[in-house]
């Protein structure tokens, strides 16, 4: 099962609505497929220009390692040099903090990831989960 | 004047609708701001996974050089080594063919660019122009 | 509102004059636009040859993240691996210390950033702020 | 002998004045030292955002190879693969066309280079030469 563009749009809209409800700073949201490639992205008006790279880095590490942002952060805190090395092998495209959320299908297989950035990492992750659930999928933050 | 996220969404949807009307292959569309940074991107179901980089490269070269895809292609045909060198200084992020379309405001200032990829370069450019016009802006292909 | 070349020149000259008044080491000063692209740069006689990259890195991170040097430094001290990862996604172009100063217009929107390097980070930031104020703009260090 | 900041400023201002006299498009001008490092840069209002990289690439190749833009272009036309390889070893930072002008002292030693971009390559080179002469130095286009 792949994330369709229709579902990716739902994820982005609902994550942004959640951010507005929670009164977060302007969010940026990316949805990647199971190969780590971009399906859709939106940056809210007022967000800093470089937000694509942060959102993508959060989601990319999640897909490539099969490990959500919180687990990556725990590993980075235990073994900073390991996550630095991982970042090297993936061309600098990994941002190991919450806000990178794995998307799973009903059988538990990873079918992509969502990256949210703009507020604190924990709030970013909460908005991502809201978007993923609204699309009828299961997120792992 | 900046391209708002609302307008970027209109550009993407209308470019994709134009593609469906013209019976093109599945399109991918990116909208960049005046600094070459991503505002929004969508990849149609059925498009190849690597389409983000192609769409972004078409639009990025347009913004950074202030030169639309057709003018870049003409220069590449006259002086292939020049466009190769330009690509080098911009980190390999330039795809000098039609489908990279400058977006101008009423006074003629460049406020961003749209990159479309998926069908022939000329058809890609036509879809981009349709999206830009639907958003009340002026495109230069 | 964009920073004009005239204003960028004023920022650079006044930042350098401030450095002379404070008897700082020879300064180098860059002014970037809202997309992180260079408007103007000057390196004082006697400064080390590699100063462009340091000045640019201080200002670039500020614009791309919408976060001034002091806030970046605080984040780097809390989560070193996070700022290392951010540096990766921005191609190694981020120097997260004071001296990278956001420039805001009257409504508070970020319209660019100034990067100063040559003396201590705090003195660099003070010189940047002096230049920005002399140009009639508001800095956030 | 090194190019002082005072002289670099003169080069930039006079190159830009020459561009206005000749009614060229908005120019961007960089001055590099004998090691290929930036002394000063200015981008005219209205120039495309990516002009720093093009100006720098024209001047950088000139200094690093000790060969002005016209000679680089001739070589690129004869042996495209050679200039492509040169570009590779210099990290993609070489733009081998006119507008990259060597600066020599009275004894003929290379003390830096000027890179101008914005109009045709030949017009860019003419503006660079005007700036270099106004600063009492000798240019080789």
UniProtKB/TrEMBL annotation, chains A, B, C, D:
Classification via InterPro entries: GlcG_carb_metab_protein, PduO/GlcC-like, PduO/GlcC-like_sf
SUPFAM superfamilies assigned: GlcG-like
Superkingdom, natural source: Bacteria
Name of the protein: Heme-binding protein
Organism per entry: Lutimaribacter marinistellae
Lineage start: Bacteria, Pseudomonadati, Pseudomonadota, Alphaproteobacteria, Rhodobacterales
